[in-house]
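Recap from last week: sequence in, structure out.
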Amino acid sequence: MSVGMGVIGAGVWGNIHCTTYSALPNVTLVAVCDLIPEKAKAMAEKYGAKRWYTDYKQMLADPEIDAVGVVTPDFAHKQPVLDAAAAGKHVIVEKPMATTLQDAIEMSEAAEKNGVILMPDFHNRWNPCFVTAMESIEDGTLGAPKYIYIRHSNTKYVPFSMLNWSAKSSVLWFLGAHACDLARFVMNSNVIKAYTVSRKGILQKAGLDIPDFFATILEFENGGVATIENAWILPDTLQCVGEFRAEILCENGMHNVQFNTNDSCVTYAESAGRGRLRDLYAENLVYGKLKGFCFDSIIHFVECVETGAQPMVSALDGIENTRTLEAMSRSLELGQPVNVTR
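Predicted C-alpha cells:
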C-alpha cells in the first residue's frame, strides 16, 4: 500500500514533512498547499509533489490523498484538522495541537467521529536523549522520577527571522508545548497545578509585543515537580538557534541532557560565511536515508496509517498538553498558581 500524503503549510516544518514523505518508498507526496502560491508551487516542485493548492479544502477533495500533515502556525490548526477529519483523511498536526482546550477537544471528537487517526507531532518523544531516560526509569535503574528541570529556548533569530507569525504566538506555545509534553511523558502523570511568570521588554522594544521569557513550575498527580524555562531572547551570536537542557532527578539517580548538538557537526566554507550546522540527532540524510527523531515521529504516523495501528502519541496527549498550556496562561493573568481541572 502506498500512502498518499498532502501537506498544509509550506513553511519551515513543512519542509521536514515533505522531506520525509518524498524519501519514503511507501509514500506518495500528492500535494502541497499554502496560502501563498509561490511557496506552495516551489515546495511542490522541490519535493516532487504531483500538485499544489492554495485552498486546502480543494486539496482535501483530492481522492489520491489518504492523510495530511497540518503544518500551519500554532493558532491555525483547528479548522484544517476539523475539515480533514470530515473529509476522511488521517491527520498529523504540529504542536501544540490547539491553542485552546475547547479547540483541542473538538478536534479529537472530530477524528473519533470520522474514524481517522489524529496524532500531535510531539517528536521529542523519539529523541534518544529522552528515550534513554525513559528506558532507565522503566527498567528500574533510575527509579521513579521526582523532579525535572527543562530549559528550552531560542535565539532572537527565531521570532524575528525564522517565523513570520511570532507576534501572534509566543515561546510558551512554540517551545513550551514541547517542554510540557516531555515533562508529562517522563513523569508519566498529568499536571494538577501550574504557576507561570513572564516579563516583557526586550522583544517589545524591537517591535514584537510578546513576552521575552516564561518560567513555570508544574506539579503532577504523582507528586512530581517540573521547572520549565522558555525564552526567545538568547543572543544570535550563539552557534545554534537555541539551547535545550534537562535534568531528571529520580529515586536512584539522575539523567542529564545537553541537547545543543548543532555545533558538534559544522561545515565551514570560505564562500559560505558562517558555518552550516547539522543536527545529528534531529534531522539528517545519510546516504539518502532519513536519520533523526524529527523524521521518526512522522514515519511512525505513516506506518500507523498504513497498518491501522494506533499511534504512540494520541489526541488525548494533545488535549492534556493544551490543558496545561492554557492553565499556565491563566496563571500569568491571575499572578498566582492555578489548579488544572478535568
